[in-house]
Input
Amino acid sequence: MGNLGQRLTVYGFACNGAFSREYLERSLTEIVRTCRFRPVGEPLSWGYPLDGRGGVGETIFLPFGEGQLKLGWLKKLLLRFLMRRFRWTFLLFQPFTESFAVIDSYPDLKDEQGKPTPKVVIVLASCLPIDEKMLRIKVRRRFGSIIGQGRMEL
Output
């Protein structure tokens, strides 16, 4: 853990399909566990449009780490309320986690001919090593074929 934060690797995948919020939340948790990390709290999700802005879709965020955050039930309840009320609250987790994962869904996308082409984008960032092959297999199992993928190191 001494080198935590010296290097961050970001993995991204794009897949075709439209999925329910519940399915996306379960999928994100399973993907995180496949990488041998543990979710810290419940996935947070926002449906769009939000305040009249944005397209139609979902954004789901899940901080995770090597160990569970130890909080009593009252603090967990308060923290969950704050995270749902204020988007920036996830920054409070940074001292406790090494990583995060996000799914963006775009169920209303259309191609140039107007044909529906819904898409899901999965982003996973970690300061710790990830088995990239296992990550790809899990994404493919949950969402079907991968239409785009990338990796960058910061």
